[in-house]
Every structure is written in C-alpha cells, then in structure tokens.
Design goal:
Blueprint lengths: L1 H6 L5 H7 L5 H9 L5 H7 L4 H6 L2 H8 L9 H8 L6 H7 L4 H7 L7 H8 L4 H8 L12 H13 L8 H11 L4 H7 L5 H8 L6 H7 L5 H8 L12 H7 L5 H5 L4 H8 L4 H9 L5 H7 L5 H9 L5 H11 L4 H6 L3 H10 L4 H8 L7 H4 L8 H8 L6 H7 L5 H12 L13
Length: 428
C-alpha cells in the first residue's frame, strides 16, 4: 500500500512527507521520482539516488522558484547532484551559489561549462579561485617550476585556518604531545592561528630553534607558552591514578593479586563505580574486560578505559568518537593515544586534517584513503599523488584529474617508477 501511495501522482504532499520519514529502498526511489514529493524529502534522500532525482520533472521548477536552493539543501545531496554526469549546465551554474564544498566540487568536474568555470574564477573564496585557475581547461603556458608552486600551495594551506569542529580537539592533542616531523613543526610555528602556535610551543619534542622563534612571537600567549618548560613525559605501565584510586578501596588486595579471569569479570560488574574505574585503569586487566567496560554509558568509566595502555586501538577510537570531548590527560596518560588521534584525523572529512595526516603518514590504508582520489579539494589529491606509497592503480585514476598539478605528477610517477618526490620543505 505504501509503495502504491509513493508512486501515485495524486497522493497529497502531506502523506508523501510521512512516507519519507524512514523509507525502505523501493519507497525512497518512488518518492524521489514523484513530482508531488515535498522538497525537504527530496533533499534528504536525493544523495541515495541522484540519477532518479535529476529525472524528476519538478526539479527544474523548484530551482526556478528558489535560485539559492543549493545553499539550502543537504550538502550530501548537493554534492551528488553537481558531480553526476546527467547534471545540466543551468543546474551547475546555480550550484556556484552553493556552499564552499559544493563550489569546490565543481572545480573537480572534468568538463565544466565555461560560464561555470569563469564564475568560479571570481569566487569570493581564494581556495576555490585557485582550484578553478588550475583546471586543465584553463590553457596556460606550462610552468617549469610547477611542482615547487604546488608544494608552496600545500604549505600555505597547512599554515592557514583550521575548522572549528570537534576534530579540532584531536588536532590540539597532536600539536601538544606528538613527536611530529620537523617540517610540520616549522609549518605550525608560522600558523595563522594564535592557538596553533601557542599549542605547538608546549610540545616537549619541539626543537630549540623553533621554540626560540616562538619566544619572540607577536602574541603574548605564544611567547608565554614558549617560555614555559614542557619536559617529555615518561609513560608508566601502571598509571599513578590507579595507585591513588586503589588506596581508597577495600578490594585493593584482589586488584593487586587477581586470582582468575572470572574475578576480573565479577569486579568489572560491581555496582561501585570507583571499583569499576580502578579495574578499568589496572595495567593487568584482561583485554576482554576492558572491551566490556568500554561499553559503559558512564563517562567516568570510558575515560578510565581510554587511559589504559592495554585498551585495543579500535576500542580507543570508538571511545573518543563517543565522548566528543577530548581531555588532555587522555593523551598524556596513554602512549597509544597519539597514533589513535592521528588515525582519526586521517579519516576526517575535513580537507585540512586529511592533508595534515597524509603529509606525514608513511602507510596508506586502502579502505581509508582510496576515496581521496576523488576528494573535492585538489590539495588532498595532490598530496595523495606525491605520497611515496601510493599504489599504481590509484595513480592511474589521477592521470585524468582535472587539476593540472595533480595530473602532471601522476603522469611523471606512473611513467617513471624510480622518480622520487622531494620532501616538503619551508623556504627560509
């Protein structure tokens, strides 16, 4: 009955809206093709089948009624529409008024209409203007120093603004605690954001020459951070917090001398939250018990599990995703946390964090990075193309990239397997 209603052109929009709350696949497709379906339903599910939505006769009418429709529809649907081969020129032209990510996606089209590319060349966003100017259709004289220019754009990108998402907390942890490559320290010491320079000044692995430079920074907060002493922490197998906690418990002897795995399970299920916290922090707690404790809805227990160096990496990542707020002590007390944080940044949808990870990550995990061959940002694709471990089949995809820097590098690397990409270096 629901499918019949979704297909019926006489069904009132109110009923179609109700059917679009959480529809199965067949009903969703019927709704996307029905001209009476309310716009909010079309935008909500359009990313699942953009080819069906593009064939809906009501779409051109909706666009005529609201020329700024791309600035209002869900980003996922907007991206799918503009990158679909069936998207018509007028639709793409209207998309130049959409969100920055949508406008950036237009610069990735292999053959965008000239009027679209011309408009993007005048975009208010400098990153979009740059991407449009580097499109392969913009015929210019070949640049002999094109790789040096491309690398300069990458460095400028990394020295620029960072998004204010929850991933920004992960970024702070990396800057404050991780032994980053020297060129990353150099970039971040010149970052445009004051908090980035102040945070990197607290990193115990920062070399003296950069610390000295930050001591004369224009910002007082950065100068103060650089003048404080931040010795590198020596990680302990038994957290001091566990020692402090167990002093208050009658079960200290049991925790110190566990008799069997069953005892650990029993203690992990104890109603006393302080005892469960002590179990979560204990350096000898079995992994399977830590996994079980990580499922707790109590933030106190989750934080304790996150501090335990024996907690599996995949469990740590899940905890961090659930907490949505990263505490400094998690990074300080768990030596595994630094790599976990970096891994999470690598999976970020934010181009900035993806590039930050790729320029220093020695390994490319296929399921994580292969889709970066089609990333909206040309800088992401370029950094991927210059990665020393990029597979040949990924480079083959980038041979037809619309960005001339990405395409040039892919051609060089696929035709000369011995070619060594020079490291990213800041010019003095």
């Amino acid at each position: 009955m629901s499918l019949l209603l979704a297909n019926d052109l006489q069904t009132p929009p109110k009923i179609l809206k109700e059917l679009g709350q959480n529809p199965p696949q067949d009903i969703m497709l019927a709704l996307l093709s029905n001209p009476n379906t309310p716009a909010e339903v079309l935008w909500r599910w359009g990313h699942r089948a953009p080819e069906v939505l593009l064939e809906n006769p009501v779409l051109p009418l909706l666009i005529m009624e609201n020329p700024r429709i791309f600035a209002e529809m869900q980003p996922e649907t907007a991206m799918k529409l503009v990158t679909h081969p069936r998207a018509w020129d007028e639709l793409l032209l209207l998309a130049t008024q959409g969100r920055p990510l949508v406008r950036l996606a237009l610069t990735q089209l292999p053959s965008p209409p000239k009027m679209v590319l011309d408009k993007l060349m005048r975009d208010r966003n400098p990153h979009i203007r740059l991407a449009a100017s580097l499109h392969i259709l913009q015929l210019t004289e070949p640049e002999t120093d094109w790789m040096e220019r491309a690398d300069a754009h990458v460095l400028a990108f990394l020295k620029g603004l960072t998004p204010s998402t929850w991933e920004g907390e992960l970024f702070r942890l990396c800057l404050r605690h991780s032994p980053l490559p020297d060129f990353i320290f150099a970039i971040m010491a010149e970052h445009g954001q004051e908090y980035v320079r102040a945070t990197i000044a607290e990193n115990p692995f920062l070399s003296p020459r950069y610390k000295e430079k930050l001591r004369s920074d224009r910002s007082e907060a950065v100068r103060l951070a650089a003048c404080r002493d931040h010795p590198a922490k020596q990680y302990q197998t038994q957290p001091a917090l566990w020692q402090h906690q167990t002093e208050k418990l009658a079960e200290t002897f049991i925790l110190t001398h566990p008799e069997s795995p069953e005892e650990w399970v029993k203690l992990a299920q104890n109603p006393d939250v302080a005892l469960r916290e002590a179990v979560a922090l204990h350096p000898k707690t079995p992994v399977e018990v830590l996994v079980q404790l990580a499922k707790s809805q109590e933030m106190r227990i989750q934080r304790a599990v996150a501090r335990n160096p024996n907690t599996p990496p995949e469990v740590l990542e899940e905890i961090l995703s659930d907490l949505r707020h990263i505490e400094r002590d998690l990074a300080e007390q768990n030596p595994v946390m630094r790599q976990i944080v970096m891994n999470m940044l690598g999976r970020s949808k934010e181009a900035y964090f993806s590039v930050f990870y790729l320029v220093q990550c020695p390994i490319l995990v296929p399921e994580r990075f292969q889709n970066k061959c089609h990333a909206p940002s040309w800088i992401e694709r370029y950094v991927l193309a210059r990665h020393p471990e990029i597979p040949l089949d990924w480079l083959a995809v980038l041979l037809d990239d619309p960005n001339r820097y990405v395409r040039n590098l892919a051609h060089i690397r696929i035709n000369n397997h011995s070619f060594s990409v020079p490291p990213l270096l800041l010019k003095n």
